[in-house]
Design brief:
- There is one protein chain.
- Helix content is about 50%, strand content about 20%.
- The radius of gyration is 16 Å and the shape is globular.
- α1 packs parallel to α2 and α3 (about 105-110) packs across α5.
- It has about 180 residues and is of the alpha/beta class.
- Strands 3-2-1-4-5 form a five-stranded mixed sheet.
- Its cofactor is Mg(2+).
- It is found in: Cytoplasm.
- Its EC number is 3.1.21.10.
- Keywords: Cytoplasm, DNA damage, DNA recombination, DNA repair, DNA-binding, Endonuclease, Hydrolase, Magnesium, Metal-binding, Nuclease.
Length: about 180
């Protein structure tokens, strides 16, 4: 199972790609889509193209993205929402179901505290994926989102098995 996590931003969009085999997480790739300081429509086009390319390259089973949070000013919140939107459209256009996670939930899942700082997230991502160095902040956040998706999916599957209730939809897409 391959999971892509996205930490959206209008200037820097982090991405992280991990695999889950059994209960073992493994790192596949991470990085940042840097759009520079051009006009917003051009930056959105670059985000869409970058996310589409990553999806095409890794053929993920799951796509997870950070939910919108209230930014300090409305302009920043709108730009963030637009960056999220083009990343989501890139995923949906390639027939992926989109899973959204709040930043506090991601920090809680990976670090154990919803109020964790970025350095703590970077450190735990490094440890959980057995990396030789901590990834850049935006990439670490994206990897943390993917890790959170794995943790929550595993918890859901375990709950369904334990209770014997409910159908487990693994969310796999059909491959041609």
């Amino acid at each position: 199972m391959i999971i892509i996590g996205i930490d959206p931003g209008s200037r820097i969009t982090g991405y992280g790609v991990i695999a889950l085999k059994g209960r073992q997480l493994s790192y596949l790739a991470s990085g940042c889509i840097r759009t520079g300081g051009g006009p917003l429509p051009t930056r959105l086009k670059l985000i869409y193209a970058g996310v589409s390319e990553i999806i095409t390259q890794f053929q993920p089973d799951f796509f997870a993205i950070e939910q919108v949070f209230m930014a300090k000013n409305a302009d920043s919140a709108l730009k963030l929402g637009q960056a999220r939107g083009v990343a989501i459209v890139a995923a949906v256009n390639q027939h992926l179901t989109v899973f959204e996670y709040a930043a506090r939930l991601v920090k809680q899942s990976v670090v154990g505290s919803g109020a964790a700082e970025k350095k703590q997230v970077q450190h735990m991502v490094r440890c959980l994926l057995n990396l030789s160095a901590a990834p850049p902040s935006d990439a670490a956040d994206a990897l943390a989102i993917a890790i959170t998706h794995c943790h929550l999916q595993q918890k859901r599957i375990a709950t369904c098995r334990k209770t014997g209730r409910g159908h487990v939809n693994y969310g796999f897409k059909k491959r041609n």
